């Protein structure tokens, strides 16, 4: 279990320095991180399921689906930040092998909300939701 903690926190092979000790002293404990992960992931799943249920409402259903699906993806993405920490999560997201997928995913998140709120194009919002799914899976 300690090995898993070291790998997820990014301290696998490096010696602790003075800055690392300060960061460790001010960071969340492992139990709190797991609880935060579970809470954010559950909220993300709930938003995605709620969005799928709201899809069948006449006129506004597609827009509500797009909004809740996007909020669910944001919450699920935020849940992994509890395990790794925000900086390590961002560093891994923007590694060269993941850069294109990250940019496409973030762009689709923004464009989904823009098409739902400002442009009011339900079909475009659905297209961006599908692209979100593929970018997250990629």
From TrEMBL:
Transmembrane segments: 36-57, 63-87, 99-119
Gene: Sft2d2
GO biological process, one term: vesicle-mediated transport
Organism: Polioptila caerulea (Blue-grey gnatcatcher)
High-level lineage: Eukaryota, Metazoa, Chordata, Craniata, Vertebrata
GO cellular component, one term: membrane
Protein topology in the membrane: Multi-pass membrane protein
UniProt subcellular location: Membrane
Homology family: Belongs to the SFT2 family.
Official protein name in the record: Vesicle transport protein
General function of this protein: May be involved in fusion of retrograde transport vesicles derived from an endocytic compartment with the Golgi complex.
Domain of life: Eukaryota
Major place of residence: membrane
Alphabetical keyword list: Membrane, Protein transport, Transmembrane, Transmembrane helix, Transport
């Amino acid at each position: 279990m300690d090995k898993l903690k070291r790998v997820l926190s990014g301290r696998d092979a490096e010696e602790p320095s003075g800055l690392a000790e300060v960061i460790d002293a001010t960071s969340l404990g492992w139990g709190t991180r797991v609880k935060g992960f579970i809470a954010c992931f559950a909220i993300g799943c709930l938003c995605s399921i709620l969005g799928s249920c709201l899809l069948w409402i006449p006129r506004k259903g597609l827009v509500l689906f797009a909004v809740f699906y996007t909020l669910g993806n944001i919450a699920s993405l935020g849940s992994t930040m509890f395990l790794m920490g925000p900086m390590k999560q961002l560093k891994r997201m923007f590694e060269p092998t993941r850069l294109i997928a990250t940019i496409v995913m973030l762009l689709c998140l923004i464009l989904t909300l823009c098409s739902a709120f400002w442009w009011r194009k339900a079909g475009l919002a659905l297209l961006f939701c599908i692209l979100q799914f593929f970018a997250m899976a990629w």
